[in-house]
Design a protein that fits this description.
Elements: H1 10-36, H2 41-48, H3 52-55, H4 57-80, H5 82-102, H6 106-116, H7 122-133, H8 136-167, H9 171-191, H10 206-229, H11 234-256, H12 264-267, H13 270-298, H14 301-304, H15 312-340, H16 343-362, H17 367-393, H18 401-428, H19 445-464, E1 472-474, E2 478-480, E3 483-485, E4 491-493
Antiparallel strand pairs: 1-4, 2-3
Helix pairs in contact: 1-7, 1-8, 1-9, 4-5, 4-6, 4-7, 4-10, 4-18, 5-6, 5-7, 5-9, 7-8, 7-18, 8-15, 8-17, 10-11, 10-18, 13-15, 13-16, 13-17, 13-18, 13-19, 15-17, 16-17, 16-19, 17-18, 18-19
């Protein structure tokens, strides 16, 4: 199968410039909605009259839905067209936000978060559209901008949550998601052209889809609820066992069927496999660190003798430099990829993340320490996010771009769930002894330092992973007679490397 033709005329290039802002806004809409509820889970538990352990389902349900639907929407985009699937993904986000605005029931709010998880399909679909529609010399920058937008949106979501809660109720957060989602749907419908279907001969794989959903569901529920149920409880261990068995069955199915949902040969290529490992580790670092920093900032200093007694808004503002760092990282990452390949920005991403977390483990007594670490961390996350699609797109044909980037997004989500659970276990495993009249459970300062060092170690490993992938060589312009042939300027793997 041949690659979808790239735009070459001036009119097509002008048209493609309209596409990227719509795709970036779509990515921002999902990432803002996904993280916006994180700092308000305790207050939501009181508002909805549910236990602290039950309220975590608002995150678990969203992570689970995103993990299951992201690869499915990515693959159906490869088969049936990326724009229709992108609109379906955003429609789920809008429907979930609308339901959340209209209900006061915890059960229906969980359903709403499941619907919002459909927005996870935006990342692989948007990357595939960029690869189809933008001029070849702009593909690397476009992909980097969309991927880095995930980190930008996560940081902005935390700030927006605090700002909205200063003046309105928690429902204003879901109103924000609804408005963002509707604007994104309109822009995608109007600006994104109907894309070529690049895998017309491909087929569906319902059994593969079912087993993929099965093992991801078992794994994510076990990881997300392990702290509440106990890591050695029958339910937790049972779900881990189910996940392992169903994952094995899924792998066998994907090897056997004619048209697999996920091509296991493609997934086993070093550039794909190790990039997915890096995605898992970076997801661990990002989600876990955001949770730890937010909690640390909101700790009442008069009781704990650390922290800043910050409001939700103040804690979000402390993380705002991470969003700014990710914004800076998108063009910087694209420049580094074009000149040196994706290894350098991915290594730098892990190194900067480790530096930021190690800095907080050592220095955390002033607000300036949080701002500094947040900026460094955001820059690192943005660089890493910009590099991962470049590795994957250089190793897979265009007709597998959606599912390949979708699986990378899934592993970022799984890593985030694991990171959040591990950080929570570290913090709850070492708490302070306060007088009985103070109804608070606060981690010790040592617990936070251990959490920061853990995140730093994970980021170091993520920065080392790219050295397991062979060199990516940027494609150069080829002269043919008196004419110069346009060649994709985005990095590609040499065939022996894939």
């Amino acid at each position: 199968m041949s690659e979808a033709p790239q735009p070459t005329t001036a009119a097509e290039k002008q048209s493609s410039a309209r596409v990227l802002p719509a795709l970036i806004l779509a990515m921002l809409s999902f990432s803002v909605v996904q993280t916006a509820v994180v700092p308000i889970l305790p207050s939501l538990a009181k508002e909805l009259s549910v236990s602290g352990s039950s309220i975590t389902w608002l995150m678990t349900a969203n992570l689970l839905s995103a993990a299951v639907l992201t690869p499915l929407l990515g693959r159906f985009g490869d088969l049936r067209g990326r724009k229709p699937m992108l609109l379906i993904s955003l429609t789920g986000l809008v429907a979930g936000s609308a339901l959340a605005v209209s209900t006061h029931s915890f059960t229906w709010l969980v359903v709403a978060r499941v619907l919002q998880g459909a927005g996870g399909g935006v990342l692989p679909l948007a990357i595939s559209i960029v690869r189809d529609e933008l001029p070849k010399q702009k593909v690397t920058g476009g992909v980097a901008a969309i991927s880095a937008s995930m980190g930008v949106g996560s940081g902005l979501g935390l700030v927006a949550t605090g700002l909205l809660l200063e003046h309105w109720s928690y429902k204003s957060i879901f109103w924000m998601g609804l408005v963002f989602g509707l604007i994104a749907v309109a822009l995608v419908a109007l600006r994104v052209p109907t894309d070529p279907v690049t895998d017309k001969d491909g087929g569906a794989d319902p059994l593969g889809a079912l087993t993929l959903a099965g093992w991801l569901s078992a794994l994510l529920v076990a990881v997300s609820q392990g702290n509440n149920w106990g890591w050695t409880s029958t339910k937790t261990l049972g779900l881990f066992a189910v996940a392992a068995v169903v994952a094995l069955v899924w792998g066998i199915i994907e090897v056997k069927v004619k048209h697999p949902l996920v091509d296991m040969k493609m997934m086993s290529r070093p550039a794909v496999a190790f990039t997915n490992l890096a995605g898992l580790l970076i997801g661990f670092g990002m989600y876990g660190s955001f949770m730890v920093i937010s909690n640390f900032a909101q700790t009442p200093e008069k009781f704990a003798h650390y922290g800043f007694t910050a409001t939700v808004l103040h804690a979000g503002v402390m993380l705002l430099p991470s969003a700014i760092g990710s914004m800076v990282a998108a063009p910087l990452g694209a420049l580094l990829i074009a000149r040196r390949g994706p290894r350098l920005p991915l290594v730098l991403g892990g190194v900067l993340g480790a530096v930021a977390m190690a800095y907080l483990a050592v220095r955390h007594s002033h607000e300036g320490d949080i701002y500094t670490a947040s900026a460094i961390f955001g820059l690192g996350i943005g660089l890493a996010f910009s590099a991962m699609p470049a590795y994957i797109n250089g190793a897979v044909p265009v007709e597998q771009s959606g599912i390949a980037n979708g699986m990378n997004a899934v592993l970022r989500t799984v890593g985030g769930a694991i990171g959040t659970a591990v950080m929570a276990a570290i913090l709850t495993g070492d708490t302070m002894k306060l007088p009985p009249k103070i109804p608070l459970v606060l981690p010790t300062l040592d617990a936070y330092q251990h959490a920061f060092w853990t995140a730093a170690a994970v980021c170091v490993i993520a920065g080392a992973v790219p050295f397991l992938i062979r060199t990516i060589k940027p494609t150069t312009t080829v002269a043919a007679g008196n004419e110069v042939a346009d060649v994709d300027s985005s990095p590609r793997l040499a065939k022996t490397d894939a």
